[in-house]
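dumping this here before i forget
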Amino acid sequence: MKISRIEAINHVLPSKLKVAAYCRVSTASDAQHESLEAQKIHYESFIRKNPEWEFAGIYCDFGITGTKADCRDGLQAMLSDCRRGKISHILTKSISRFSRNTSDCLSLVRELLDIGVTIYFEKENIDTGSMESELLLSVHEKSDENAQRIRTLQELLNQNGEKRDILRKLRS
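structure:
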């Protein structure tokens, strides 16, 4: 009688995706605080409901502009955890919540991709895990920057118009 040895097959279950969220509001008003709290509740619930995801935390910055990454403690803490392998995917409301500076945004996205971390920008429906995402990010970032410049110019023009009206009234 011949005996055959059957090797055991190790079934390795795929590990869950370690998902975190990043939230930011730029002003410290009560309304913005409520917005931040709503974002935190939404993302924690959304992440925990997905059976293929492991909740890796919510990182926030309150009352801080998005133009400089190094000034945002919540963002820096999240980046540090990404570098330590604690996070593999990030959810955020929009590109402008993540960064308002094109070069910072692209630099952070590239760094995170290099260490295997992807970002999903909900409003723009962009996942940095796809090939065309960097181009889309650049276009969106430039559009946002140009829109902000236009708003600033419009405010200046309105202020100048009001000043002209006041000067005309004073002269007459």
